[in-house]
Design goal:
It is a single chain. It is built from 23 helices and four strands. It is mostly helical and 533 residues long. The strands form two sheets. A two-stranded antiparallel ribbon has the order 1-2. Strands 3-4 form a two-stranded antiparallel ribbon. Helix 7 packs parallel to helix 10 and helix 18 packs across helix 19. It is globular, with a radius of gyration of 24 Å. The N and C termini lie close together (8 Å). This is Putative integral membrane protein. InterPro entries: GT87, UCP010361. It is a multi-pass membrane protein.
Length: 533
């Protein structure tokens, strides 16, 4: 068995379809949580069990079924917020009385945005339709759609379908409903499809560890946040982009990342880790194709709006620049518990928090530089998913905004980067549970809600758990024998052209750590060679 400079097999990771059943990872054998979960069903898979021969229930289809069940639970969790009631004068209204959206913990941005973004008006169009907020006051402001282009168009298309549904209901062809309730359900249907695509892409990318996609499928974060906002669109594009890269199709990967960036900007962050790893492996041509395709795709989607609806198109960038720190950011935690008002203090209408923006951007770039250093100095080349997870986690930790649904960004990356089921589900439970104190903090102490300090305490716990995940990823980068993926003798299932590639550019590293990791790699290589022989 030949070995590359990492002490791992130099042959590319085989496709799932080409794997014998005995070559697939069996979670009930290798993962303590999966082993315990099988006890009510008879225990771990038997050594002589027939695997991979069922005519229908493949691991991928089981994972998709689990995702459907989780999404169904997520819909029921939000259903309380689309209930309606009849007013004294006979009008049908959405029942958000007495803070129902917070007490029932069913709040979703989809519901208020239907009217707030003027989507309820048949003749509206994103980035062309404007409205005035706080008219007649010092805070008066002309507003437009505040989302990136694809997210805005997604909302507009769903609104058009809602109007068509309402027309058909009035004609007696379909059951009637409050338009905003129909809009939520239509949106939830397409977001569910997007998350199913995410799970499918994770399963296909994981290859021999296909069952890891079950963690993404049943994630508590999906149950709580799949329908909180529109982020499933971006996760689907990002996950399929990584899948395309893993199949050595950098142009398609770039196109998908560009599409994802037109919905949420974070898929573009993947180009940073890919740049570092391609530089290390001497695969810059593949990175250039992916980066060029991503830039062209994003530009093609945005260019018409930039040319003809520039003021509305720039609303997303303007609001993100002028936005102050959110309650769930680390900056607000520091400000609350220390009383320090160094992050710009009270802002005038339309004034950007310059200090906060500078600090946030500088911290993120600093962490990115550190991650690049890790990528270029680690004794073995890190896996693509590992660096992508670290970059996105760094952005969330240093950003002035961590909206609760942003945690969905980490789910597919965490599953691919750190396939320890117990650790991942523990983090997901902690992150999902932050939703409860958040809702009761928004309810307000005057309405028997929680004080801000209680909510911020749970934010600190969530951030600490994410930092722990990052530390474990870094530990496995420097000690590949502890990486469940590489411990099986493969290199990087997500790597594509990087999978099994030799190093061509490496920076000097800490000698002590390097020698220790190299000894472990040599031990792992000898063990794999003995197993193969």
């Amino acid at each position: 068995m030949s070995s590359d400079s990492h002490g791992l097999s130099s042959s590319p990771t085989p496709d799932t379809a080409s794997l014998d059943a005995t070559q697939r990872e069996i979670p009930s054998w290798s993962d303590p949580l999966a082993r315990a979960a099988t006890q009510p069903l008879g225990g771990p898979l038997g050594a002589h069990a027939v695997v991979g021969r069922h005519w229908f229930w493949t691991p991928l289809r089981v994972c998709l079924l689990l995702a459907v069940l989780a999404l169904t639970a997520g819909w029921f969790g939000k259903a309380a917020c689309i209930q309606q009631y009849v007013t004294d004068d006979g009008h049908v209204e959405l029942d958000w009385r007495s803070g129902r959206q917070y007490v029932a913990m069913c709040y979703s941005d989809i519901v208020p945005l239907y009217t707030a973004e003027q989507l309820d008006k048949p003749d509206s169009f994103p980035y062309a339709t404007s409205w005035v907020e706080n008219a007649g006051t010092e805070y008066e402001q002309v507003r437009y759609m505040e989302y990136p282009v694809l997210s805005g168009l997604f909302q507009w298309v769903n609104a058009k379908l809602t109007h068509a549904w309402s027309d058909a209901a009035q004609a007696g062809w379909l059951p009637g409903a409050l338009p905003v309730a129909a809009y939520f359900n239509i949106t939830a249907f397409f977001l569910s499809a997007a998350w199913l695509v995410t799970v499918w892409a994770v399963a296909r990318t994981a290859r021999r560890r296909v069952w890891d996609a079950a963690v993404a499928a049943v994630s508590p974060l999906v149950v709580v946040h799949a329908f909180t906002n529109f982020d499933a669109l971006a996760t689907a594009a990002a996950a399929t982009g990584l899948l395309a890269w893993s199949r050595r199709r950098p142009v398609l990967a770039g196109v998908l990342l560009g599409v994802g960036a037109a919905a949420k900007l974070y898929p573009l962050f993947f180009l940073g880790p890919l740049l570092v790893l391609c530089l290390r492996a001497g695969r810059m041509r593949a990175w250039g194709k992916a980066a060029g395709a991503a830039a062209l795709t994003w530009s093609a989607i945005n260019l018409p709006f930039f040319l003809f609806l520039r003021e509305g198109w720039s609303e997303f960038f303007r609001l993100n620049t002028q936005r102050d720190m959110d309650p769930d950011s680390l900056y607000n935690v520091v400000s609350y518990f220390t009383g320090w008002q160094g992050f710009d203090g009270p802002l005038a209408p339309g004034e950007a928090p310059t200090v906060l923006n500078t600090v946030s951007g500088a911290l993120f770039l600093t962490l990115c530089a550190g991650i690049a250093y890790v990528g270029l100095t680690a004794p073995g080349r890190p896996r693509v998913a590992q660096l992508c997870f670290l970059v996105v986690a760094a952005f969330l930790l240093t950003n002035k905004v961590w909206s609760p649904q942003y945690s969905l960004w980490l789910v597919p990356l965490a599953v691919l980067a750190l396939p320890h089921w117990r650790l991942l589900l523990g983090w997901m439970v902690v992150d999902a549970l932050v939703w409860a104190p958040r809702m009761f903090y928004y309810l307000g102490t005057a309405n028997k809600g929680l004080p801000e300090g209680w909510f911020l305490g749970t934010v600190i716990v969530r951030d600490l758990v994410v930092i722990v995940l990052c530390v474990v990823v870094l530990r496995q980068i420097y000690r590949p024998s502890r990486d469940p993926v590489r411990a099986a003798g493969v290199d990087d299932p997500t790597g594509g052209v990087l999978d099994g590639a030799e190093d061509s550019f490496v920076l000097p590293s800490w000698r002590r750590i390097g020698r220790r990791a190299e000894r472990e790699d040599h031990t792992l290589a000898r063990r794999n060679s003995m197993s193969a022989s």
